[in-house]
Structure formats: C-alpha cells, structure tokens
TrEMBL record:
Upper lineage: Bacteria, Bacillati, Actinomycetota, Actinomycetes, Micromonosporales
Domain VOC: 4-130
SUPFAM superfamilies named in the record: Glyoxalase/Bleomycin resistance protein/Dihydroxybiphenyl dioxygenase (SSF54593)
Pfam families: Glyoxalase (PF00903)
Alphabetized InterPro entries for the sequence: Glyas_Bleomycin-R_OHBP_Dase, Glyas_Fos-R_dOase_dom, VOC_core
Species the sequence originates in: Paractinoplanes hotanensis
Protein name: VOC family protein
Gene3D superfamilies membership: 2,3-Dihydroxybiphenyl 1,2-Dioxygenase, domain 1
Length: 133
C-alpha cells in the first residue's frame, strides 16, 4: 500500500487550554512535541502519547465495556484511553490534578486494570494497566 498512514492525530478543542495542558502534559506525562501561538489568544500544543491505535466498537461493545468498567452507561461516543504502568496510582494522581473519578480501577475480563475519569477539556478517559505484560 503506497499511501500508508504514518500518524494519527486527534484534535480536541478545549475551553480551558491551560488546565487541559497541565493535566495531559504535567499529570499524565504526555511529552510536548510542539506548541504554537498566533494572534490574540490562539494557541495549540501537540502532545506525544506513544503508540496510537484506532479502536472501532459497535454499540453493543460500547455498552459492554461501560458495564464492565463502570457498571452503567457513561461514555460519550469518543473516549480516550491511555496505557499506564500503575492504573491505581495514576488514577489518584489524575484525581488530585482535577479529574473526576467516574469509576475506580477495576480488573477487567481481558486482564487489565481500568479506571474511568472525566478529565479537563471535557474528555472522558480510561487509564489502563495491562496485567499480562
């Protein structure tokens, strides 16, 4: 295939830019790849999040994962998931940094520990730790 994709970039408009940068860069540790500003208060920051994947799920799977991780439907159509080394510790750090814990770290049937949070920038996120690695 000659036109292979080389990078996936998710662009999110956030009302409180500083809070979102602080949370994702400083708390979760996403590396700052580039930052630009323009006229007025126009700003953007590109954060490195490691390997990117696109997970497509049908509505039944979407509901199943909500049930396993949270116990009820909560996720919007889009949810960001970040693999971390220690989901319990990182969930506590995220909460201290302003994220709202929707569901605490829970072991899933697919052998990971997952938590759900509402993060700055109005983003619903999962922090997950693979147990079989």
């Amino acid at each position: 295939m000659t036109g292979e994709v080389r990078q996936m970039r998710l662009i999110v408009e956030v009302e409180d830019f500083d809070a979102a940068v602080s949370f994702f860069r400083d708390t979760l540790g996403l590396g700052e790849e580039a930052a630009f500003s323009g006229d007025g208060d126009e700003r953007v920051m590109i954060l490195e999040a490691g390997r990117a994947t696109l997970e497509l799920a049908n509505p039944a799977h979407h509901r199943f994962v909500d049930d396993v991780e949270v116990g009820r439907p909560v996720a919007p159509r889009f949810r960001l998931a970040f693999e971390v080394a220690d989901a319990t510790a990182r969930t506590a750090e995220a909460a201290e940094a302003g994220a709202e814990v929707v569901a605490p770290p829970t072991e899933t049937p697919w052998r990971s520990v997952n938590s759900r949070l509402d993060a700055p920038g109005d983003l619903h996120i999962t922090l997950f730790q693979e147990l079989d690695q």
